[in-house]
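ok so for the tutorial part 2 we go from a plain amino acid sequence to predicted structure tokens. step 1 is just haveing the sequence, like this:
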Amino acid sequence: MTGNDMSREPMLEMFLFESTQMIEQLEEIIIRCEKSRSLEPRDVNEIFRIMHTVKGAAAMMMFNNISTLAHSLEDLFFFIREQKEMDIDFDLLSELSLAFADYTRNELAKIEAGQSTEVGPPEQMVAKNKDCLEQMKASCGAVAEVASAPKSKTMFYISKYETAPGKTLQRYQARIYFDEGCLMENVRAYTVINNLKDIGNDILFLPPDIIDNDETADTIRESGFFVTFTSGEEYADVEKNLSQTAFLHRLELEQLDETETAMVLPEAVTPEKRQISLEDIREVAKSGKTDDPEREEVGGMAAAGGARHQSVISVSIRKLDTLMDLVGEIVISEAMVTRNPGINGPQLEHFSKASRQLRKLTTELQDIVMSIRMVPVAMTFQKMNRLVRDMGKKLNKDVELEIIGETTEVDKNIIDNLSDPLMHLIRNSMDHGLETREEREAAGKPLKAKITLEARNVGGEVWIFVRDDGKGLKRDVILEKARCRGLVTKADSELTDKEIYACILLPGFSTKENVSEFSGRGVGMDVVKKNIEKIGGSILLESVPGQGTEILLKIPLTLAIINGIEIGVGQSRYTIPTTSITESFKVDDKDVIADADGNEIIMVRGQCYPVLRIQRMFNLRNGVNAIRDGIMVMIEYNGRAACLFADRLIGEQQVVVKALPTYLKKVKGLAGCTILGDGSISLILDINGLFNQIA
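step 2 — the prediction. this is what the tokens look like for a chain of 695 residues:
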């Protein structure tokens, strides 16, 4: 089946989400095991569970190419799990596992984009997995073919369903037939059992080993899937629950009498055991465990089915975006009501109390919604382990990645735009910054280099540091390359180290003479700068020759709501993000000096800063002209500072960011707009855009 054959139904959304999560978990485990050169039983069990789950889910969604490849790797780890001691080729095992991760991620991306996926399985990759399995079996002296899974004992599913007061427990027996040709009937039967946990207890099903034994699909196809359970729900509700089963062809549901204590099966099903006593179920229910410890260890159905109440749910990001938009509208409406000019005159005591309570609840609602959207940077940081590992092998560099502050949380939309910049920065450090083993040995450095990723909360921002202990940036080389490409026009004496280092962020800049697989085209760091600025962030560089380089990314916690300072220029209002403001102060006309071109500068504590008049920048017809009648607001971005001249400061306010109309998007220096409490519109200034207008 191709991605175009299936609409983005909730089932497909969940498949994409869970499969992506599992692939990332697989990479993390494999890389950790490769570093430690050990494979603990819990790691093998977890990898086996991931393979099994991905295989079943892909088969159920009819993406057989992913399912077949996962099955071949599952057999490999099943064999490893069954062996008590064996020599493992960690390099080969890592390559096969990571190749599966890359292939599956690529196929998931196609499905996400609605593109056609591969029809058949990747035969070459499947063959490599089978060859590796045969080598392992030969080295262990195994002659017989490894089984798909051990034949398990009768398995019970003990859920945490509790009967509501006033309801009487009834025992039901169901026989389910699936549509012909739907395939993977055993996996679909697993879904039935999983859905029953919400309405039933003491669940017994046959065939019992639907998860471990793929041959049970044939049994279910011929004779149906049998399940018996107790429930306090009415017959109609139970029937409704089971009728929602995907690919359901026929349902036979029967409510058993109290005298019936066994599941009676037809001749075709397990003839050696025609009846299964329900006394066994009661014994299992008392202990709360299955009679198969192997299933609990692997994390199968019995272990996962209801051992604890669900405390986390997955929600579509589109729904959260809509919720955030609605909360933003509520915040604006609340401000329009409580700050309405028409109610400023009379003293309305009851209205004041009510408006304060409304403001309090609105703020709490806004904080809760924002917290829902916050996700830790851990997953994004952990992805870099794979990049460091792969590049280290290709460049023959021994590199350790240290991660600090991975629990720091950022808005989901910010996280989505953070992965690419971090990837480019890591690639740059690996290729440009870190020396070879020979160079590090000659410099007296440890042979193993280190790259550090650190995240921390600072005020309303998250600061992300990317450090390496390499050779650092070469100031003279960067300056020479920048001049050759016409990227620098100032005299050497007028340039600071930060300004020179910032040249590596410009389009087309690279200090590499030859283009390689990883660098030399001069686009990587330019991409970093653009992506960080797109989310309202900034980037700073520090370097010490011979000791290493530090790159600091300052990014906002969220793009939806910002803290800003309102300023007035004539009849217009503008919002400056609070994080960009250093100070504000009054000055006299004599403190500002103009050059021959009309550019104004001001001296503050011995430092010169350019003066930007908002009135002139946006061609406003009214406003204050005399410096002494207005106010200066010092702003800072990427190590640069300037002074904005405005008529007046209005005050601090938390504002909801709205997109600019199409005809205003071409205006430089504007990042968005917001609606104020009195219904008027305030334009949000783009600090980076303002600095770009300074000669």
